[in-house]
Amino acid sequence: MNRLQRTLAKLDGLPAPLRGAARNFALRRAVPLTGTAGLDFVALTPERSEIRIANRRPVQNHIRGVHAAAMTLVAETATGMVVGMNVRDDCLPLCKSLNVAFKKRATGALRAEAHLTAEQRALLASQTKGEVTVAVTVTDEAGIEPIQCEFVWAWVPKEKPQSQDLAGQTEARTRA
């Protein structure tokens, strides 16, 4: 169990009606943009995440739909959270690339659901460095997929290995 899982597990002791609000508060505080956009962290497990964004004025575009950047944010957050639920505590997850195709006009609120396979989860748990392509589906209130996305997440050690640091210092001294 990693740090994010442990943090969220502490909220399980709260009464059911308070858990969602507490989860949103904690995660919005950790990633302030998600609070600004008003993302709702509906479900977070090591296998999947579900994030929602309401169609409200602060995230709307000029035609009063959810802005393209907000659509991308909800998809990126869903993929990032499921990776975050699995990445080792000694590693840092980073979005390496994203590809977003805007297919249809969105109607109302959006829901993004991201999944990791058992193989991807095992890779995140066993390797100190790597990357995974995370599947995500974004649907609107009409059940339509207004965007199709692909996110590639990488993870790297939080701290550079000591031997690399020493080698770099030696090389810098040699050049000087």
Automatic annotation (TrEMBL):
CDD domains: PaaI_thioesterase (cd03443). InterPro entries: DUF4442 (IPR027961), HotDog_dom_sf (IPR029069). This is DUF4442 domain-containing protein. It comes from Pelomonas lactea.
